[in-house]
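Q: I have two molecules that I believe assemble together. Could you output structure tokens for the complex as a whole instead of separate predictions?
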Amino acid sequence: MLKHQILCVLVGGDGDLMTLLSDTRHIFVRYLKKLIRNPILLTFSLIQPILFLVLFTQLFERFVSVPGFPAESYLLFAAPGILLQNAFGSALQSGNSIVADLDTGFLQKMLVTPVSRYAILLGRLLSDAFRVVVQSIIILVLAFVMGASPVTGIVGVLLMLFTIAFFGLAWSGISLAIGLKTKSSETVFAIGSFLTFPLIFMSTSLTPL
Amino acid sequence: MSNMIEVKDLVLVYSNGTKAVDTVSFNVKKGEFFGFLGPNGAGKSTTIKVLTTLLKKTSGSAQIAGYDLDKDSNEIRKLIGVQTQETAIDGDLTGRENLMLQGHFQQLSGSQLKDRVDELFKLVDLEKFSDKNVRNYSGGMKKRLDLATALVHKPQLLFLYEPTTGLDPQSRSAIWNYLEKLNKEDKTTIFLTTQYMEEADKLCNALAIIDTGKIVAAGTPRELKEQVGLDSIKLDLKDCDKDKASAIKVLKELGGVSNISETGGCLTAFAKNASLIIADIVRSFDSLGIVLSGVSFSPPSLDDVYLQKTGKRIRTEALVKTPNLMRFGRRRR
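A: Yes, here they are, computed for all two components at once.
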């Protein structure tokens, strides 16, 4: 009962949980359809991590010989970092979608219907999480083909994908907030790129400390 | 007959200080076809945004079908259909997917929604294109689909923002017929904004004209035309820039001309009985060497009402898109 009340508060006013769920599902499906129908976008957002995976692992292969390197091969070391970087980069462009919906008036059109306001954001966030998980699976398969097998086994992989989903969710939320606040896709893009690169090179995703 | 919309002393001030709607009051009766007219930037779209729960009003009160705009916004959203200023359909989806999605937003589902969607495609004559990507639709087809999305849940109150702008004459008259049917047979109350005075004259049984945020005239089209009560005489001067000043002087000296305004052709004079003084005007112009390239006169039209009330002739085409004011406004939850 209490749980239901809390959810009702979350849903806002008289909206009920079923409405939230079904609205979220419809908006989630809408974004998935949009994504699938724009294969160029999907391809190009995958090219960068794949380049990183193929090129960097060849380039920095010799890192392994540095005393104290924490993995057996550079590929093993870098693959998880590249996965997160992919999630990060893809999710940070999410704000563009809301800017596009604002510009075309689609957002206003949703807002004049009784659609759950939370579903509008939640549907988008979930579609982003889904997208980064699918992209991650592709990268993982590629890494596997290149000779990296996860030390932690299938459970480790699932946990990894689970973490990545939430990572994507969080950053796509930040990007949506930027999009809603600035209402400019150029700004979303600029802030997205500005955040991506320094954070990658400041982190230990590609080089050990 | 009770009121569908009741607006009293409505004020909306944007966060940048612009007072877009300034103490506006009007009522729209149930079943009425109401025309809301005004030049670009007069406050039309802002008023619609307030009434469709997109913007929060600054002060005043507004009720739709007895529901309070602030407290019962979700109830209001269930009974209104809105065709927005932008043709807001998703280009990546098919026509059917767009309609189904709007139906889902209105909590419709199953065969009820499917049947309704088929019915709407027939209505807007897009049956053949229902499963085509909307990106490939022509402008007119998009506009018709957009109208259909506003109707998916059979709204009691329909807001239309320039529904026929940019349409060819066939589509326009098809939409007019449909809207009249919707209003007469289904008793849908329609709130229409348009740039076309003939459209308002043909369809609406009540009108309000808004300019710089205030209602400057209201009534039935006939009442408004009677208020103006003057014939308009359109005077096209061959050299408008050179002769305008002297022409205005002559017209002012002539008895019977009660008002002069500058319009596209050059000048429009208003007089009680145009046929009697038109000869005088031509003679006086002739004696001063002012060359006319055309003269015509007509009984009062809605255009004249509009012109007199707002001081500018409405553009027949919306050449200038009003800025998306929502960007400055506060959006509701």
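A: One point stands out. The radius of gyration of chain A is 19 Å.
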